[in-house]
Amino acid sequence: MKETINSYEDLLRMLDHLLKEESEFSWDNFYSDRERKVPFFENHPDENLVEYIEKKRLNAGKALELGCGPGRNAIYLSRNSFHVDVVDQSEEGLVWAEERAKEHRVQVNFIKSNIFDLEIEEGTYDLVYDSGCFHHIPPHRRMNYIDLVKRALKPGGNFALTCFVEGGELGGSDISDWEVYRGKSMKGGLGYTKEKLMDIFHEFNAVDIRTMRDNSPEDSLFGSSALLAALFKKDAME
Ligand SMILES: C[S@@+](CC[C@H](N)C(=O)[O-])C[C@H]1O[C@@H](n2cnc3c(N)ncnc32)[C@H](O)[C@@H]1O
């Protein structure tokens, strides 16, 4: 690989690479044993997503899910009349999601890609959804992430995410952005607070940011108070 920095993109790629070099973690390995007791392995949609739809904060339209993994939220959106595109870099995650979509006879468009390599026509989506991907995005890619969401959304479109609470039980390191690069690690995912999310996504209008509600598997919903759930809206005039 070329180790020269001639552009901003070269700089971002170097930082991606330096963080990856230190990590043994692979999402494909993570998904290879489906029997493990991982809370989000159950095919249950996020409780906040269900609430947004039931309370008509979100209306059916075109949705993009970032980091869909085994597809539980994509399947729920498709069942609720959304046209759903999903993207994930993990082959194993997508194979699992496709199997589930077939089993439930729902239509989902699967894209295997790094979210930062997506080519999206501006203003395509009514909803961008992210459950647990954003907290794995390294700080140097956050600006790309915000640009991606802004570009993907129609004016007035919605962006919703769930992410680790800072110092929460499921993960959510409370190290500074600089510390990520000193230690060459995100320590399993970065933790956020309501204030941090409002600051990072200040170009959007914050509709609702709260702690997710704990759910037991019998509820057929996924929820954990170790996660934050946030709903933002892009300006209708943009
Ligand atoms: C914690 S899992 C959540 C999976 C799914 N959203 C769920 O809640 O069931 C995070 C997912 O984000 C994906 N991911 C992380 N960074 C990504 C990137 N840069 N591009 C594409 N996918 C990414 C991983 O492959 C993984 O499947």
UniProtKB/TrEMBL annotation:
One of its GO terms (molecular function) is methyltransferase activity. The keyword Coiled coil does not apply. Residues 64-157 form the Methyltransferase domain. GO terms for biological process: methylation. Keywords: Methyltransferase, S-adenosyl-L-methionine, Transferase. InterPro entries: Methyltransf_25, SAM-dependent_MTases_sf. Coiled coil: none annotated. This is Class I SAM-dependent methyltransferase.
